[in-house]
């Protein structure tokens, strides 16, 4: 990796909503493999992936970046808070597993709109408890830093720009009302390679695999842009008919965007009946950016 410390390269944006859950112990990987929706078995020490935790009905409770620090240590970086509730729920499934689960209150998360200094792809750069992740590609470079001494103050405008970038890259940001509502396919999480249909059992696995192998995924994410704020939970309509629902929103300066779950088969932009509306206002569909798949 670079000899520069990830925490000192480029201006950092403090991201106080984001928290780190640690799983430590000889059964940390086995426990996580049985609970989370991605295949941890493909990760080597020093690698990470997008993953999440599902209800038995295959609905997403939370999304996170999962980092394999070593054979007995995993970090879960949760973008949308709720870490304390997730920890309590996970502990309910421990039984006799040799794992300790907790929030590392000393770790802070920050981001920057520049290329990572040492991390590349799904390999993170680590210097002690300072870790850097590569979150972007090309003209949309972004990187994320987890460390104990974050030299950055919260900046509401910068945090809003970060959230906008997440949605543009197809990373759903889940408010509480949208948890346990959507399947991984409905959130187009195959774009982020965030779930497995081949590994062994985990909560919701049967539904996820059946949807995949039987070709029953009928809905996915669409990125919408508007001249005014878009309310989360609003209906998206076309030609007077409801098509789907807004599940994640972000605004920065005069940019207002949203992710909505819509039918995969619908009139393409520009064709009759394709004009989309939310709460009586016109919205424009934009392409999701690539770059977050790891």
UniProtKB/TrEMBL annotation:
UniProt cross-references to SUPFAM superfamilies, sorted A to Z: Folate-binding domain (SSF103025)
Question: Keywords for this entry?
Answer: Transit peptide
Q: Which InterPro entries match?
A: TrmE/GcvT-like (IPR027266), YgfZ/GCV_T_CS (IPR017703), YgfZ/GcvT (IPR045179)
Q: PANTHER family given for it?
A: TRANSFERASE CAF17, MITOCHONDRIAL-RELATED (PTHR22602)
Give the protein name, as stated in the record: Folate-binding protein YgfZ
What is the protein's species of origin? Novilysobacter avium
């Amino acid at each position: 990796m670079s000899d520069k410390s990830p925490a000192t390269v480029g201006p950092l944006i403090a991201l106080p909503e984001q928290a780190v859950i640690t799983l430590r112990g000889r059964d940390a990987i086995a426990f996580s493999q049985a609970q989370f929706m991605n295949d941890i078995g493909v990760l080597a020490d020093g690698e990470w992936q997008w993953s999440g935790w599902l209800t038995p009905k295959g609905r997403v409770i939370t999304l996170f970046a999962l980092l394999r620090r070593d054979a007995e240590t995993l970090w879960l970086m949760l973008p949308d808070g709720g870490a304390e509730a997730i920890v309590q729920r996970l502990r309910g499934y421990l039984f006799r597993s040799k794992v300790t689960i907790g929030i590392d209150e000393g770790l802070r998360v920050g981001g920057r709109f520049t290329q990572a200094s040492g991390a590349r792809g799904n390999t993170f750069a680590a210097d002690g408890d300072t870790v850097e992740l590569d979150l972007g590609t090309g003209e949309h470079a972004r990187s994320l830093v987890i460390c104990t001494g974050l030299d950055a103050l919260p900046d509401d405008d910068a945090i809003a720009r970060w959230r906008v970038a997440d949605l543009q890259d197809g990373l759903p940001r889940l408010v509480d009302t949208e948890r346990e509502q959507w399947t991984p396919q409905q959130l187009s999480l195959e774009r982020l390679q965030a779930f497995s249909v081949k590994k062994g059992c985990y909560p919701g696995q049967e539904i996820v695999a059946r949807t995949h192998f039987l070709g029953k995924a009928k809905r996915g994410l669409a990125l919408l842009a508007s001249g005014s704020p878009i309310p989360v939970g609003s209906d998206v309509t076309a030609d007077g008919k409801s098509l789907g629902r807004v599940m994640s929103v972000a605004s920065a300066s005069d940019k207002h965007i949203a992710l909505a779950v819509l039918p995969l088969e619908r009139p393409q932009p520009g064709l009759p009946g394709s004009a989309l509306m939310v709460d009586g206002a016109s919205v424009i569909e934009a392409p999701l950016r690539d770059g977050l798949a790891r």
